[in-house]
Design goal:
Elements lengths: L1 H50 L2 H18 L8 E3 L12 E5 L3 E7 L4 H7 L4 H25 L1 H4 L7 E4 L3 H10 L3 H7 L2 E4 L1 H79 L39
Helix pairs in contact: 2-8, 3-4, 4-6
Length: 313
């Protein structure tokens, strides 16, 4: 019994030691979480204070728009332009997204978050609801104001709509919750409301269109190159065919000359030898005709008519 109690006591001491170690570790983790929460609150408070300033809000919205464009794979000053001014010099969208076929889409960033930030910091539910309603009205005001600018009249050619970019999905979803008609109002005003999620999808579709346009142009260039290469090969075949026919004509002339030499010239020359008028050590060479002819090209698209044999190479 004493031995068993001793082992039990040792086991309890080990468990207690382990419990104290885990407790100290838990305290340390809780302390770290508390410090991280304080730091996060401080940073959030700083961000909220900064976003209450119109200039900071506008700049943050533009930065978010640039980030979205980069994530979508659109290249700066190639597929889109920033801070452009219209022909009248009075309107200036944030981004002009270039489309294949020399078309373009206007994107303007707006950051209606003042009432939204007040809503999430509201201490009462009634105040929160009122601030969210105010936020929805602010979004509607941006839609109406952007529709009146009629960007499509200053930037041609472009579709008769402009994309209103709101840099946070929460900004738009909360406004839509308190004003479900925002999308319909936007369509009526020629304004398409987009958040980072939806704009990335739109821009990636445009980027895909650019890739297809590039592939189409490359395919057209390859087709032209193929036609040109085929024409050059055909011309080369015609030249070789002319060379072969010229060789055949030369061989025919050579055979005729050999025949004339054998039947008209060498016969008389051999009589000189028979009469002893020529040196006996000198023999008239025996010439043979050439019975081989140049091989003709058999490809139909490289054959040339017979009447072109004498044409200059």
């Amino acid at each position: 019994v004493k031995e068993s109690l001793t082992k039990l006591d040792q086991g309890m001491q080990a468990i207690e030691k382990e419990r104290k170690g885990e407790q100290e570790s838990l305290k340390m983790q809780l302390k770290m979480m508390t410090e991280a929460e304080k730091e996060l609150r401080s940073e959030t408070s700083t961000l909220v204070k900064a976003l209450r300033m119109p200039i900071v809000r506008g700049r943050w919205g533009e930065m978010q728009l640039r980030r979205v464009v980069e994530l979508a794979g659109m290249v700066n000053h190639c597929d889109f332009y920033e801070q452009e001014t219209g022909e009248s010099g009075s309107v200036r969208p944030d981004v002009i997204v270039k489309l294949p076929g020399e078309k373009q889409v206007i994107v303007d960033a707006k950051t209606p978050c003042e009432a939204y930030l007040e809503a999430i910091q509201a201490e009462s539910e009634d105040l929160k609801q009122e601030k969210f309603k105010h936020h929805a009205r602010q979004v509607r005001q941006h839609v109406m104001a952007l529709g009146k600018k009629s960007y499509w009249q200053s930037f041609q050619p472009t579709p008769e709509f402009v994309v209103l970019f709101i840099p946070s999905d929460n900004f738009f979803s909360s406004a839509l919750e308190f004003d479900p008609s925002l999308i319909e109002v936007g369509v009526e005003q020629g304004v398409i409301i987009a958040t980072p999620t939806t704009l990335i999808g739109l821009l990636r579709a445009i980027a895909y269109g650019w890739k297809q346009d590039s592939l189409s142009k490359h395919a057209e260039e390859v087709s032209k190159l193929g036609h040109e290469l085929y024409k050059r090969i055909t011309d080369m075949g015609e030249h070789w065919a002319k060379v072969g026919r010229t060789l055949a004509s030369s061989v025919d002339a050579y055979n005729k000359a050999v025949g004339s030499l054998e039947t008209r010239v060498l016969v008389s020359a051999r009589k000189f030898k028979e009469m002893g008028a020529a040196a006996r050590s000198i023999e008239c060479a025996s010439l043979e005709g050439i019975d081989r002819v140049p091989r003709e090209l058999q490809a139909d698209d490289m054959k040339i008519p017979l009447d072109k044999v004498d044409a200059p190479l």
